[in-house]
Amino acid sequence: MIRALFRTLAQAFDPALLRVMARSFILTLLSFIVLGVAVSWGLDRLHPTGKAWLDPLVTVAGALGVVALAWYFFLVVVAAIAGMLLEPVARAVERRWYPTLPPPRDAGVVEEAAIALRFTALLIIVNVAVLPLWLLPPVGAVAYPLANGFLLGRQYFDQVAVRRMPPDQARLLRLRYRGRIFCAGLIIAFISLLPVVNLFAPVLATAFMLHLFGGFLPTGGTRSPLPVAPRANS
């Protein structure tokens, strides 16, 4: 995992990856603005209250709520955008680090879209479910990273893995290394919430998972992957 992280950082200024990062920056920034406007519109339905002393408080609370909720759900936006940038990031990473790999399998638009939509929906549902737990800060502070770390690790891994193997083999590989994939998901969740850095999170997280996936393969990511089976003790 450490090697995957260092390789990701080492390629951060690769021109090919910088071009994708520029797209990531624009897409995530626009998405954040749209998300903020949507949340603002929803909260604005509560205003005015008809009470002069309460309206300013509602306005301030609404503004703070827009920022807080947009930031809270921004992780979902980052995960959704990552699916759109997967292929250009993968090409840049594999061209530099895994040049002997054969062309990826044709997963098909339907298969890739199904994975992205399924996990985006799961992220939304889980984050909505976790939101009330923040009324008890210690519980929310633990539940939020654990839930998102699990889902993000799984999503990014599946999106990367199905480029190289059928879904059933990808699932077996994910089960075999689920501990490391969960830890990778926690790292992805963390960088997705860092101001400014999260604008580039879809690219960095995808590259990170590509390196992690390459290390899981029997050939170390240098040749076409072989079928795998879960360990007996996993």
From TrEMBL:
It is found in: Membrane. It comes from Nitrospirillum viridazoti CBAmc. Keywords: Membrane, Transmembrane, Transmembrane helix. This is Cysteine biosynthesis protein CysZ. InterPro entries: CysZ/EI24. The chain crosses the membrane at residues 20-43, 63-86, 115-135, 141-157, 177-194. It is a multi-pass membrane protein. Its main location: membrane.
